[in-house]
């Protein structure tokens, strides 16, 4: 039996809420979080999905990328660095044939363009990955995370 009790709202914690609604008779869902912005989630076609949204495991990597990107941009802005272009590429490795199949290794490549000091970029990424990024903290106990950057 599932525990149907919602998470208590406690003053010392930030509470997040997500609602997931099935869109079709297969695996297409629409999720809406506290922000009110809808995201579409779907399964692979080989199990009956329709490619109408991101896979749940892709969304985990997207969340990791977004969390760190926000940190890095904020830190570089405080350092008066000028960012003309900012991109991340995230590659995740999962064990084949395993159920569940969590990520074992993740590599993030930061691609930046602008008037940027390489030492400041490295420091901003290190701070994000080692101190600030909550998504990284979720992955770290079970996933080896590596990262690199390129100034374009």
Percent of residues in beta strands: 25-35%
CATH architecture of the largest domain: 2-Layer Sandwich
Write down the Rg. 18 Å
Outline type: globular
Give the topology string: H per helix, E per strand. Answer: EEEHEEHHE
> How can the largest sheet be summarized?
3 strands, antiparallel
Structural class: alpha+beta
Estimate percent helicity: 25-40%
H/I helix tally: 3
Keywords: Oxidoreductase, Peroxidase
GO molecular function: peroxidase activity
InterPro entries: KH_dom-like_a/b (IPR015946), OsmC/Ohr_fam (IPR003718), OsmC/Ohrsf (IPR036102)
Pfam families: OsmC
Structure notes:
It is an enzyme of class 1 (oxidoreductase). This is OsmC family protein. It comes from Spirosoma soli. Pfam families: OsmC. The chain has 152 residues and is an alpha+beta fold. It has two domains: 1-54; 56-151, GMP Synthetase, Chain A, domain 3 (2-Layer Sandwich), CATH 3.30.300. Helices cover 29% and strands 32% of the residues. The protein is built from three helices and six strands; from the N terminus they run βββαββααβ. It has a three-stranded antiparallel sheet, with no helix packed on it. The radius of gyration is 18 Å and the shape is globular.
């Amino acid at each position: 039996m599932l525990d149907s009790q919602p998470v208590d709202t406690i003053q010392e914690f930030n509470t997040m809420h997500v609602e997931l609604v099935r869109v079709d008779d297969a695996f297409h869902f629409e999720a809406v979080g506290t922000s009110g912005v809808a995201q579409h989630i779907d399964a692979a076609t080989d199990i009956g999905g329709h490619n109408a949204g991101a896979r749940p495991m892709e969304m985990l990597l997207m969340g990791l990328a977004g969390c760190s990107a926000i940190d890095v941009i904020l830190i570089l802005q405080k350092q008066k660095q000028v960012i003309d272009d900012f991109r991340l590429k995230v590659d995740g490795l999962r064990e084949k044939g395993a159920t569940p199949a969590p990520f074992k290794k993740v590599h993030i490549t930061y691609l930046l363009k602008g008037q940027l000091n390489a030492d400041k970029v490295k420091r901003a990424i290190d701070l994000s990955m080692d101190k600030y990024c909550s998504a990284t903290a979720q992955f770290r106990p079970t996933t080896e995370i590596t990262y690199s950057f390129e100034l374009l």
